[in-house]
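Cross-check.
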Amino acid sequence: MSENMNGMSAGNTADKTYANTKYKDTFFRYLFKEKSGMLELHNALFDDCLTDESEIEDCTIEDVFTRQMKNDLAFRVRKKRVIVLTEHQSTLNENMPLRFLMYLGRTYNQMMTTVSEFKKMIQSMYEKGYVLVSPHDMAVVNDDGTMSRGKIMLPEGKIPFVLSEDDVSYYHYMDDDGFATKLVIDDNGDIKCEYKKADGTVVTGDYDVVPILDSFIKQHPDFSYHGRKGILAMTGYNGVLGYRTDGAYKTKKNLQDNQKAFLKANPDFDYDKEVKQAKKVAKAMKKDGWEFASHTWGHRNATSSTAAELKTDNKKWEKYVAPILGKTDMIIFAFGADIGDWEGYTSDNAKYEYYKSRGYRYFCNVDSSQYFVQITSEYFRQGRRNLDGYRMYYNPDMLSDLFDVSEVWDSSRPTPVPEM
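Predicted model, tokenized:
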């Protein structure tokens, strides 16, 4: 490690041993470098009582400003969707907010697609002959409860595909970061995004996937098979579609800090009115061809979570999300983390058997290969491809059948895109 970095241990030169004068920083990193320490640190900082180390994802920053500088500790708490950025400081350091802001920018650069990129993507796919379909077109549930392959009738040269978007909840952590704030119905009855500009002005328009795709299909109706749009994979812990509909906003119990801040900033918040508005938007979207899938209530990693934990989570989804969006038979796994390997689900898979008992028949992971579909007599399973900054920058050839990355790429993106 560079001499310009905080020391990791005492150094030996010949037969002389020198003390590490930066022991405070070193000891801090030593104490909390393991997931158990990160979990303990999170619980202490947020007065929480998490016990599952699988919820912790180490994401300590490498090479933030120069190749000789790193941050002390950074980790994500998946269940809470919290990013914990920590630096040991014995004196006031006014650069820390900037350093943390840079980390968030790097994360967005990896995981997000810009408005201009998405518009160019769907234009390219339309020109290549792609047509939007639903998993419900690809496989159907028969009267006896079994499943079989569906029949999609398209002109020669057309290519069916499924589009999905995750986390359309406009979480609190996205506030003031250039994202839309919620989906609304405009004066013409169309679904649009509400967007808060830097000066505080609130406008509506095509600022995310839903209204962009709606507007595109109005111009190109043959891009949609029988009126199909896309599938929105929805959590529930911050509400849905930008509306704060989770029960915590009503009971005001077990609130996260950003939920407390929201309620404090909105003293006239009316929970029942919020739920009513969300239902109205969801109903209009479903009527217009959009579908909803579970993304688990708490954005849980289904691979590392136990069957009991997924059961508890799904009960929350059914209690707080399903009454607004409607019951669904589709689950799109958070993090793309599946409940089984590529060979398929079996009856001894407790997670699969639970989800099946609750009516789920369509399962989607993230596979990134061009095609991954399984249709059995019991379930439909499909892999998804992430069209984000990371994939476009590092694996453009994997997307060449859909679009030319060089023509889609938003020149305002910083490069290189950080590695994961």
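Residues 307-325 form the longest helix (19 residues). Residues 1-24, 62-70 have pLDDT under 50 and may be disordered. Passed to J.P. for a second look.
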